[in-house]
Amino acid sequence: MTELSHDSTLRELATAQGVLRYHEAGDGPPLLLLHGSGPGVTGWRNYRHNLSTFAEHFRCLVLEFPGFGVSDPADGHPMATAAGAVTRFLDGLGLDRVDVIGNSMGGIVGTQFALAHPGRVRRLVTIGGIGRNVFTPGPGEGIKLLTEFTDAPSREGLVRWLHSMVYDPALVTEELVEERWAQATDPATLASARMMYGSEAFAARTAAAAASDQAPYWAMLHRLRAKTLLTWGRDDRVSPVDMAMLPMRTIPDAELHVFPDCGHWVMIEQKAAWESAVLAFLTREDAALTRQDAA
């Protein structure tokens, strides 16, 4: 399948809380792709190079979360509004059940959605991000650099953060820096980012979590019913690979695939190997169905 363009795949969905923008390509079972966070991120930039591969098998839907400069903004913290955006999006398209791929923040949002709506997610693929540090200190290097950039944006700070995302520094091109810088410094997008990663917001969120009686999402992973594939870069400096230990052990039906020479952006840095592993997982027949056919 030929490479798909930004404009040819861009769609809009009007909802009661503003317009959700997304990219759509392919036919078949619905596959929802959720992007991560960070300066200048969009769903298109996360998955543009993977879209043609998955569109050969699925109806791919790359949702742009509110608060990142593409979909209409929503009131509230971007992480808090993201789950609602997923529900509005799927309801608006009339989709009862989907497969989900989530990168970093998108993996957390996809996991939370699957926990809250167990019948609506068939299979879940995460790319780093979920769980919590077991051996390594937290937050990771990439999160600290993200906070530094958010507090005081500079081109040099953006480059430092981008380098923390990858194993191969050659991936941090001038083109990547320029497109990220333009969106990351948009006033509305920057204000939204400061709600997530500014040092004051980070400290307030940490204090609120310590005082809360509500269990964090990672403590509820034993309730996850979707078959889950955890994908991780061995050299991830944002969410170190030891974070995978908790979800790997507590999610009832989970698999873990770790990719060598790879940072946080597994779908970019190990594109072919990652796509192969994810496609095998998403298209594999359920064991119960296989046994029934054999009988």
TrEMBL record:
A cellular component term, taken from the record's GO annotations: membrane
Keywords annotated in UniProt: Hydrolase
Gene3D superfamilies, sorted: alpha/beta hydrolase
Keyword Hydrolase: yes
Superkingdom field: Bacteria
Domain AB hydrolase-1: 31-270
Pfam families: Abhydrolase_6 (PF12697)
GO MF term list: hydrolase activity
Name of this chain's protein: Alpha/beta fold hydrolase
Native source organism of the sequence: Streptomyces nitrosporeus
